[in-house]
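Our preliminary data section would be incomplete without showing what the modeling component actually yields. Below, a chain of 123 amino acids is followed by its predicted structure, encoded as tokens that our downstream tools consume directly.
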Amino acid sequence: MPVTAVWMGMEFPPNQGLDQDEVNEQVADAIEENEVVLFMKGTELMPQCGYSRKALGLIDQYRDDYETVDVLESLDEFRAALADRSDWETIPQTFVDGEFVGGSDVLEELDERGELEETLTSA
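Predicted structure:
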């Protein structure tokens, strides 16, 4: 039987996450509907890992309009859905015009070579 937290008479079941099909659809929609999308841990205002924070900072240098998706609600399902599209295991992951670009390390390398702005703004 799953553990249920009780706080002031309210029950909170353990994080069930989202259904894999739901997450697959969310990932597909986000990639198709946005020129630039960053799948990250946390939100723009509250990144929950240093790599996500770094990716946000790099993208912010060159773009004002891009989508972010917080994967923490269903981390395992997002990893699976993203791995099918990118063959990349870590998060964050950045997609531009439907194509996988990379994680924060790849964004950093592109920036150091002077190629990140063109990658992000050619969309």
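The longest strand covers residues 36-40. Helices lie at 20-33, 50-60, 75-86, 104-112, 116-121. Preliminary results of this kind motivate Aim 1 of the renewal.
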